[in-house]
Amino acid sequence: MPANIKYDLVAGIKEKLAKTKAVYVGEYRGMTVAQSTALRAKVREAGGELKIAKNTLFEIALKEAGFNALDEKLMSGPNIFALCYDDPVCVAKVLKEYASDKTQKAFILKGGQLEGQNLTLEQLNALADLPSKDVMRAQVVRTIAAPISGFVNVLAGTIRGFVTCLDQIRDKKEKENPAA
Predict the structure, then answer these.
(1) Of 55, 69, 84, 176, which one is least surrounded by beta carbons within 10 A?
(2) What is the pTM of this model?
(3) Could you report the per-residue pLDDT of 103-113, keeping only the tens digit for each?
(4) What is the DSSP pairing of strand 108-114 with strand 22-27?
(5) Which of 80, 12, 78, 11 is closest to 40 using CA atoms?
């Protein structure tokens, strides 16, 4: 009977991993229920999900889902796994922010895997420092639009100068012929 439960757990994790873009690992030793709930809510808002599972079961699910094996250093201790469904950067930001929070000492971010590449803690922190997809898109659009808006301003400046010149000519003619 217990073996069937483990098969079901592995199947559930494997199903979630099929939709996942990245997996991050953290140690949650000593986290309270309130801390865990708060972290889960933040990760969910960022487009991910936290999953607690036995390391061996999670490794089996990773293997069956076609992921590379996680580094052995990551797979020791009581781990919590963050599955990223949308933007991996947003979830990484949330985890880094929570791990660096001075008020808690229970959650320790370890590393993870992104698109088949194992990430060290330093690489994960570098990923978390990147801007999100929306910010990067806005920067690209702004970069593309800058020359266009500059061109429009140049054209508007020429027309504005022409209108000003015509206005000055009209004022001059009105001064020369006040009766007309």
Answers:
(1) 176
(2) 0.73
(3) 778 888 899 98
(4) antiparallel
(5) 80
